[in-house]
Amino acid sequence: MSNDATSGGSEKPAAQQSNSQAEHTEHAGQVLLPDLELNIERLQRFLGGGSDIVCRTLTHRSFDNEQYAILYMDGLVDGAAIHTMLLGLLEDANRTNELQDDGSLYNHLMDRSIAVGKIRPVTSIDEAGYAMLEGSTVIVVGHSLRAIAVDTAGGESRSVEEPSSQTVVRGPKEGFTENLRTNTALVRRIIKSPNLRMDYKVVGQETRTNIAVVYLQGIAQDDVVQEVHRRIDAIEIDGILESGYIEEFIQDKAFTPFPLIQNTERPDAACAGILEGQVVIMVSGTPFVLLTPVTFVRFFQSSEDYYQRYDIATFLRLIRVASFFISMLLPSMYIAITTFHQEMLPTSLLVSLAAQREGVPFPALVEAFLMEITFEILREAGVRMPRIIGPAISIVGALVLGQAAVQAGLVSAAMVIVVSFTAIASFVIPAVNMGIAARLIRFVLMILGGTFGLFGIMSGLMVLLAHLCGLRSFGKPYLMPISPFVPGNLKDVLIRVPWWAMRNRPKNMASKSNLKREGSGQRPDPDREGA
Amino acid sequence: MNGKLRRILCAAALVWTTFIATGCWNRIELNELAITSATGIDWDGSKWIISYQVVIPAAISSGIGTTGGTQQSPIVVYSTEGRTIREAMMYSFSESPRKLFYGHNRVVVLSEEVARRGFEELIDVYFRNAGPRETVSMLVTPGSARRILEQFMQLQLISGDGMKDIVLSEMKNASILPNVQVYQLAMELAGDAKSAVLPEIYISGSGDTASLDSFKQTTIPSKLKLRRLAVLRQGRMVGWMNQRQSLGVSYLRNRVQQTGVTVPCEKTDGTRGYDMIHISRSSTKLKPIVREGRLAYSAEVHALGTLTESGCPQNLYKPEVIRKIEQGGELQIRTIIQEAWSRGQQLGVDVFGAAESAHRKHPQQWKKWSGDWNSVFTSAALETNVHLRIARMGLSNKSFQYITNQDKRE
Q1: Residue A323: pLDDT band by 50, 70, 90 thresholds?
Q2: Is B99 within 8 Å of B31 (Cβ atoms)?
Q3: Residue B110: is its pLDDT beyond 70?
Q4: Which of A348, A357, A450 sits opposite B31 (nearest CB)?
Q5: Beta B381-392 vs B294-309: how paired, if at all?
Q6: Where residue A172 falls among pLDDT bands split at 50, 70, 90?
Q7: Residue B237 has pLDDT above 90, yes or no
Q8: Of A425 and B64, which is predicted with more confidence?
Q9: C-alpha triplet B383, B389, B393: angle, nearest 5°
Q10: A379-403: string of b/e by CB count within 10 Å (b at 16+)?
Q11: A174-221: pLDDT as tens digits
Q12: Residue A32 has what DSSP assignment?
């Protein structure tokens, strides 16, 4: 520091040199000049001179009444921090008796008078400007070629609340927020390990969105971490508003209905992923963080599975897998069986279904499409409409479209049951993006079932399976541990074994040298101590 | 990139043509089906007369959940005729607004005439076509098969379904008549003995129950009932066996699931009373024995039962009393089996699976026997060994007659 200060004079030619460069590249890379007024003016011009730029000039009694200025963007800063810092600075500025021997006001301020933890020197106008845009306060010192960026980021932000998209009965109720710093803190508070790495990046030329890549050194696979870095660094875009932007840029395959990257709003779910070797990508401005690599079965695991007892967790997981298949297959199976394979139904059911279909004017395929599309419209309306008119939609949906359509003979009652059950089943899947995949596939299978019967559905499922087998998430097989078959990792797929039996981390996520996560022989046993 | 896009578009176009080219070949909606619940086969000397009992779903459904009384008949029966069975079925298109659907056909009723004439054509139709199932139950009726289809049944709106239910329930609980499905019949007719059996269904009572008005009374004028066992040899019906004999056939074929045995016993005044044993488990081993070059059979029956009725004053605490009832039951079963065996020999039909067991046990001699199996079978003796055990005697011990007549006996 002191080195820089003493060589202050030698910086001048360099500054002038860059000033001459600045004539053709207007603001870019402009170094600070030893002229306070000019620097302030240039900084304001760099930031467009909005009314939210606050500039306060102070005079220090010592250092020949040298002037310095405090600049920050109103609203981006933490008011309390600014207040404390200003108090300290003002007190310091009025002191005369303790003349400093550091030589310059810059060094004095840097070392002795700013009541904020995180400060750093900045040397150019744009560096100072970007620091201000991130919420820092910049202290421009009259004769110095450097300014000080003080991290006073703050301002209005949502507090930590219960996550709205992934609720649990038992488990932590904290959710990520839009603030990256809060989010990293939430993870650090859970994993207090020195091996927890957080690599920061900035993506987006205009938004300059902060991104954190979080993983556990030694548990995450190094090649995956490198690949995450490589893919994020390769993104060139003007703005990142949500982690979905990142997801679409870095997933392994673009044309697939299946999500290749998991997202979550829950710190505990993110930490569970980190502990198993996943890499978490946090994006400033969204509570949804990304987890990768991911497998197909992950989307059927809810964080609550690990907090509830294993027996009920297993049961619920089986229910979820069944719901996934119901949501994907039920309408197409209904169409196929009632229009091609009537002999498969029990006689009394066939007679009952045939009676319901009396007078229905459309073929089963058209009928199913009508109802499915109707439901999708209702659903979308339910999501988009103002919350206050919600009950109206349910009345219209349930009464007009359900009951009245059956009574008017437009659709059969059985079809309404099939479509409603399908709809309910699709909400059981804990990951919304996997539910969406099932919804899209459902329509394709309905056409196949309506044209080729069960043969068509089977063909469609085979194509789907082949597609799934070919998918990779950051180079790791998507269907693992089912294909390739890893028997040791089946303890957390369809069934969830008790914690003391789940000794290994997933093979495709965790580093090979670090697969054990718990000690052996921990099965509860009252005789263990005595023996 | 352009090439890739073109390839994708070509593939999409090809897939699309498959959708428009199929015309959804055998797609048929539920309300375009005439669900056939029973088929009747008659023969008028030169033509087949095929009758169909078709379900009217709307009439049945309106009865569900409401009063149960339907205004409209739940079934409709009509007939077509032709030189072949499929020709007759073809003519059904000229009178039915919907396509006949045989996938849910429950029973095929043959008239006795058809059974005596032979019905290989029918079995061929069942095996050749994918629509009708080979698991349909077959029944024989004396008289017209169409008339059987026209009858309504109590408790069951669709009488075709009801007939199958009667057959199944009878087979499970009384084991007198078997449920014979088309494929079983075909296998037996094609087997070593070239013989088979079919249960009989007939209309008991007077007149027809062909109108829903009959159900406004507690007694309906006529009912569908199972009775005898039709015996077939080489595809032709040759005679009947009565219920006792057909129960014997069930014992010999090891088809008894549950049945009952009535055992005579003596009352205090010397008249005859009866005990009833409910057989809950029974197994029979029919073994061919060669004795002095002649074929004979031994049937080993192991049965387990519960005493369900005691008609004589008996102190059932005493094991010798139980043993006596058991012996009575064993005698009854043995008699039933012997009666069936001699009736089979009398008709010259081996419906007991005797040929198969002889073929299996003595494959060498079989070559000799098979040339003249009928005479070998009719001269083969049967010895029966019945072991009956009464495992339980119900909730009470001494018979009630024993309690009421105690002083008289002392």
Answers
A1: very high
A2: no
A3: yes
A4: A357
A5: parallel
A6: very high
A7: yes
A8: A425
A9: 145
A10: beeeeeeeeeeeeeeeeebeeebbe
A11: 999 999 999 999 999 999 999 999 999 999 999 999 999 999 999 999
A12: P
Confidence of residue A1 (pLDDT cuts 50, 70, 90): very low
Q: How many residues does chain B have?
A: 410
Q: State the Cα–Cα distance between residues B329 and B259, nearest whole angstrom.
A: 12
Contact: B28, A339; criterion CB under 8 Å: yes
Contact A347 B104 (CB under 8 A): yes
Taking CB atoms and an 8 Å limit, are B27 and A339 in contact across chains?
Answer: yes
φ, ψ of residue A210 to 5 degrees: the values are -80, 135
- Residues of chain A with C-beta less than 8 angstroms from the C-beta of B106: 347
Among A90-94, A392-396, B73-77, the minimum mean pLDDT is found in A392-396
**Strands lying side by side in the sheet with A136-141:** A53-59, A67-73, A136-141, A147-151, A119-122
What are the phi and psi torsion angles at B3 (to 5°)? -60, -40
CA closest to B64 among chain A residues? A352
AA letter at B102: Y
Task: Choose the closest CB to B27 out of A340, A347, A351.
Answer: A340
pLDDT per position as a tens digit, A121-150: 998 888 889 899 888 999 988 888 888 999
Spatial separation of the C-alpha atoms in residues B315 and B230, rounded to whole Å:
43
Residue of A nearest to B20 (CA): A451
CB-facing half-sphere around the CA of B267: CA atoms within 13 A:
11
Give contacts of A443 with chain B, Cβ < 8 Å.
Answer: none
Hey, are the CB atoms on B30 and A452 less than 8 Å from each other? no
Q: Where are the domains of chain A?
A: 2-151, 180-294, 306-477
Sorted by where each begins, the domain ranges of chain B are: 31-241, 255-410
| CATH domain B255-410 topology | GMP Synthetase; Chain A, domain 3 (3.30.300)
CB contact under 8 A, A364 and B19: no
Interface predicted TM-score of the whole assembly (ipTM), two decimals: 0.80
